[in-house]
Amino acid sequence: MCELLGMNANVPTDIRFSFAALARRGGATGPHRDGWGIAFYEGRGARMFHDPQPSAQSEIARLLRDYPLKSEIVIAHVRRANRGRVGLENTHPFTREIWGRAITFAHNGQLKGVKKLPLGLYRPIGTTDSEHAFCWIADRLRARFDTLPTPSALDRALHELCNELAGRGVLNVLMSDGRTLYAFCTKKLFYIVREAPFGVATLIDEDLRMDFSKETGPHDRVAVIASNPLTRDEVWRELPLGKLSAFRNGAMV
After folding, report:
1. Greatest CA span in the chain, whole angstroms?
2. How many domains does the structure of the chain reveal?
3. Which range among 34-38, 79-83, 224-228 shows the weakest confidence by mean pLDDT?
4. In whole angstroms, what is the distance from residue 183 CA to residue 191 CA?
5. Dihedral sign, CA of 58, 8, 209, 238?
6. Which CA distances in Å does 155 have to 80, 124, 176, 198?
7. pLDDT tens column, 123-164
């Protein structure tokens, strides 16, 4: 299984603390050494970095840990290959243009028979089941909505599409249109919302500690979603199985 990391905040926020833990799981404290990727939203677009090398050894990952990129929505993924070769084209998150916006998608799990689903405008670049599933979702969304739908309409559509795919296997997904961070899981995803009064957190995978009260404002709010808890001294909650969770402005809505 791969591992996912997502962040949604009400102000542009630095994800380096959480990313440090995820990167270690890509070949050091975890077996997910078959590539990694991360997307930082900037309005309608997304700044993306991918590398087929293990994130624990990647020079690009090291650069990102030293460079304070801030964003309100971030999606990251470290891969353990099950289907599809180890290569740049198979690293998540994947992105496609829909309604003039960058839509990003990252997934862990295996989906039986998903490549038999018919595709239209959107086609995979790589060979993973995950990218085929994303292209199928993108086609269905484009057919359903001619223009960018309201957040609530997109919430309902994505929930229906994820439920259709969920019967094919494990569907743990992070997805965004730049307005909302969506999470859907059939196995496990955990989340935490950090807000005032902010405390101190220590990473599980690395000897790194952060006092958030020194890094945040009194009205800041940040939601972090991960395949497994990243810190040892905070309370992480499991997302409900089989339901689409939508995060906006650092809160589950």
Report:
1. 51
2. 1
3. 79-83
4. 10
5. negative
6. 29, 24, 11, 30
7. 999 999 999 999 999 999 999 999 999 999 999 999 999 999
Please state, in angstroms and rounded to a whole number, the distance separating the CA atoms of residues 43 and 73. Answer: 10
Q: Out of 2, 135, 162, 185, which one is annotated catalytic? A: 2
pLDDT tens per residue, range 63-104? 998 888 899 999 999 987 776 678 899 999 999 999 999 999
pTM reported for the whole predicted model: 0.95
Helix spans in the chain (H): 16-25, 59-66, 129-144, 151-166
Structural domain range at position 70? 3-252
**Is-catalytic flag, 2?**
yes
Which pair of tokens denotes residue 121? 């405008």
Q: What is the CATH number of the domain that holds 193?
A: 3.60.20.10
115: left (phi over 0), alpha (psi -120 to 50) or beta: alpha
Neighbour count for residue 116 (Cβ, 10 Å): 8
